[in-house]
Fold this protein.
Amino acid sequence: MTRTLGEIAGHIHAELHGDPRCEIGSIDTLENARAGAISFFSNRRYLHLLKTTRASAVILKADDLAACPVQALVVDNPYLGYARAARLLYPDAPHAPGIHPQADIHSSAKVSAGARVGPFVSVGSNTVIGENAWIGPGCILGKDVMIGADTRLIASVVICHGVVIGKRCILHPGVVIGADGFGIANDNGTWLKIPQVGGVIIGDDVEIGANTSIDRGALDNTVIEDGVKIDNQVQIGHNVRVGAHTAIAGCVGIAGSAKIGKRCLIGGAAGISGHLEIADDVTLMAMTGVANSIREPGVYASAIPAMDARIWRKNAVSFKHLHKLAARLNRLESKS
Amino acid sequence: MTRTLGEIAGHIHAELHGDPRCEIGSIDTLENARAGAISFFSNRRYLHLLKTTRASAVILKADDLAACPVQALVVDNPYLGYARAARLLYPDAPHAPGIHPQADIHSSAKVSAGARVGPFVSVGSNTVIGENAWIGPGCILGKDVMIGADTRLIASVVICHGVVIGKRCILHPGVVIGADGFGIANDNGTWLKIPQVGGVIIGDDVEIGANTSIDRGALDNTVIEDGVKIDNQVQIGHNVRVGAHTAIAGCVGIAGSAKIGKRCLIGGAAGISGHLEIADDVTLMAMTGVANSIREPGVYASAIPAMDARIWRKNAVSFKHLHKLAARLNRLESKS
Amino acid sequence: MTRTLGEIAGHIHAELHGDPRCEIGSIDTLENARAGAISFFSNRRYLHLLKTTRASAVILKADDLAACPVQALVVDNPYLGYARAARLLYPDAPHAPGIHPQADIHSSAKVSAGARVGPFVSVGSNTVIGENAWIGPGCILGKDVMIGADTRLIASVVICHGVVIGKRCILHPGVVIGADGFGIANDNGTWLKIPQVGGVIIGDDVEIGANTSIDRGALDNTVIEDGVKIDNQVQIGHNVRVGAHTAIAGCVGIAGSAKIGKRCLIGGAAGISGHLEIADDVTLMAMTGVANSIREPGVYASAIPAMDARIWRKNAVSFKHLHKLAARLNRLESKS
């Protein structure tokens, strides 16, 4: 969608340095943008690309205006300005409502008039699909499911029985919501499956990445609060609660009954044990392992960074004796 | 399903302290249970919840009977009692047998009379679906597959050609069984794919979580023995063997040709290298990395727990020199 | 397919020690092979199996010829010889071209005459499916997708709009290509989704394992170069570039905008942070965490190996004070 530079400046609350009538049809990197495209500059590492950009205009901070060879939109937070401009230039495509003839909809399900249901979609009894929702090809919805207005299930998403999903959510392909939690009891050496009779409640404005799974609760519900953003390949166990506006990067695993605070940032491949609490405003760096509750906001980490494998091998051996090294150091100190 | 307290007591082998005719229709947490619901108490951390519960009855140990304000069922293992009671109150829903008109079944496939096959299911040639099996919507079964009696593929499960699955198994949405193993040979800088001509054998009473994948063998079969329970997002490589009644938590990766013993407990996000053996009765804590065989039963671990990132950064730097610290300590000791 | 030993020897460039007319119908392990089967020997750990094998012939090195009790094919690299022999004995099954009547193909899509499209496949507008391609049951292809000649999507693969896939690729079940990258901007405590307007370009001869996801770019494309081999459960973020002939084992996560070199070997469950570069010919051992660019070829690692949990617990505690241990050692040295 083409917009004028003036429209974009207004939309992102920017100070315009340039021609408000200049037409912008796309957004691109500093390197690739050409006439008709806008770009943004938020990382000083790429200053050389700013200086040589051929974009029609760049979204940037006032401090960087002097270095910009083209028109500029000055904002406090160029990355946020970019996000807003991109949303203006690339609005969600409207969809034609209707139910594909190759969908299988139970007679008791209620599909809103403005919703779209694609081919090879199965919808169970008493399930409700909200106004303007998009149920893409190959999605499977069990019985008693509720899908909020304007929510989009892109394709091949599975929503098990009784799951409630809020408004304006986006669920990417391969997502599974509401499969049984991992509830087993040991009965003299074999495992007895425990029926998982809780549900899953997903709030509004939640995004869930490809092939992510969120299990239903054992007794209570698993709850994902409003505005949570979850990347791909994430595993969320039964009875987990994720606080509002927390962001979870790819490959994270959260074990059963963990309670994650609001506005947390969970780095990629972090692992969180079950039955613990993480406070609001906690950041976990990538690959961090959390085995105990974290009570204070702050940044936490535990991953060992990569090193030359020859050095690593020696250090890994030393680690096996680390507590002995510490004891030996104590003895030396007491002698000296 | 409603049961009397007396029926439940009998089913779970409990000593009843209360009215055997009391009707119980559900099971819930100590906190949420109300009249008509039973609960259980197995973790002393929640003693305050036991004391204030409004459940009709609680499953607990004899030692905790005095603290219980309501009727009680006394057992040795309340968690197991809970599992049994839940299974009594929430039996698997019986399914109406039959093949959905929008399924695609090869003419040579054999679907037992009592099996149910959902919409958008594809079944290949010579595949056999056992008595009372449930093949949910969107499942894809290749040719020469065998699905045992009473096994349930919830939805969107893919079973590749020649895979054999036992009786009473449960496969959750997104599971992929029998995709090609990662077999490649380096041919002067490029990779030559090696045909994966083995199969996968899954025993009886196996449960496999959402989006988990188990590869077919290169030559021999990949084998999952009876009673194994696997959580979500697990990866099991070609020619792995998992011993009976082992439980594998979410996000675990097991590389090719690893042999895992019986009754092991594999913690979440553990990683197991290929071509090694793990003895029976081994427990791996969460995020443990196993690079060598483990010959003795016991508990093993390797993950570094989360700490304040400022402290972590210093420790991570020190770790890079750990073997030198050890050598320096040796020198100091020899001097002193 | 049955071949003579002479044909196999010629195909794998081996020196034949045996009867060139001997018929070989299968390939199997040293232990399981019987008359009519060929095997291979590449790992001296299995020397006892070579000495007792009942295979008709074994592919091996000249050095091991004397230990072989049966016919032999001598090559420099027996594992590569095995790969080549397996490809000769187990060629890809040819498929009958055609579109299944229960597929849903947009009228503007172009399906080549020799391609096969299975049941419950959805193909969007303007999508092109190349000659001899195989689109298995349950696959979902968005609009403007290009699938190269001879490429196979086994089953339940999702390809989002605009993705380009090369020739002779194999995509296993549950693969998702081109879902939105994890692009969000913080707007005063809540997250604003950034439209992901880049695409995904997959080269020729790429194999992608079950349940792996590769996100579309934010502005530029995500690129997987020719000959890359990716195992199961891998996550590749937006704008990642993976260099030609790199192999990525299962459960690996690669965060956005990372650039991986050519011919790298990425071990299982390794984690690679975003916005960094890894040189050509880098090997990462399993579970390695990479937080900074790696400029030099070589082998890198960081995982702590498993140990008895009682020892581990002490060492993990010592690790929390490791930088203090180092400082104390400095002080002692300066005193002595």
Remarks:
- The first helix of chain A runs from residue 5 to 12.
- The helical segments of chain A are 5-12, 47-51, 78-89, 309-319, 322-335.
